[in-house]
Amino acid sequence: xxxxxxxxxxxxxxxxxxxxxxxxxxxxxxxxxxxxxxxxxxxxxxxxxxxxxxxxxxxxxxxxxxxxxxxxxxxxxxxxxxxxxxxxxxxxxxxxxxxxxxxxxxxxxxxxxxxxxxxxxxxxxxxxxxxxxxxxxxxxxxxxxxxxxxxxxxxxxxxxxxxxxxxxxxxxxxxxxxxxxxxxxxxxxxxxxxxxxxxxxxxxxxxxxxxxxxxxxxxxxxxxxxxxxxxxxxxxxxxxxxxxxxx
Length: 247
Description:
The protein is mostly helical. Helix content is 70%, strand content 0%. It has helices spanning 19-34, 37-61, 73-94, 96-108, 117-120, 130-144, 149-163, 170-184, 195-201, 203-215, 218-245. Helix 2 packs across helix 3 (73-94), helix 7 packs antiparallel against helix 8 (170-184) and helix 7 packs across helix 10 (203-215).
């Protein structure tokens, strides 16, 4: 298992303008969420509501109507992912590639023809360095970086959006993987935040920032990380609104 590298591949991200301050703000915002009295008493119900809101926003980013009752295939997949994510947490910590495959099975079951399920569900596409990049991403998740959790979460999210490893439901999978990373890395250990709502409210900025991350430039990566941190702050405010209604 990857635990220590002589050179941390994400260390340069911390040198980008504004990143260190943004990381601190995200941590403070989510600490306030976890310390809310309603989350000290009944956080499981609040986490479930956060998961529902996250699924709806994630699906809407990929074209599902916000008012859909669950029949839209993208929303149905996002809901399955939200329901199954907790059971994948231990797998994510030790075998991220296996967890990604399962996330894709859940997310894309209604998007891939039934006669193609065995060939396509949970199977990254061949070529374009997909397998190599997924391997490098998995190494980061299981310990090849000491970058703070908001940075790692943003990189997982951005890399999966950029790579689009499966060809279907990649956005839903990327956002679910980001949530798993936030939980596993201790940023949002109970899954109370809802950054997906912020991404949806700023969908054009989200897509521009993701495209910039995909270029690999310092400006592109920095803009993406700052965007993700901003939306985690927004997701903390959404979480507080959930908690307030249950106080």
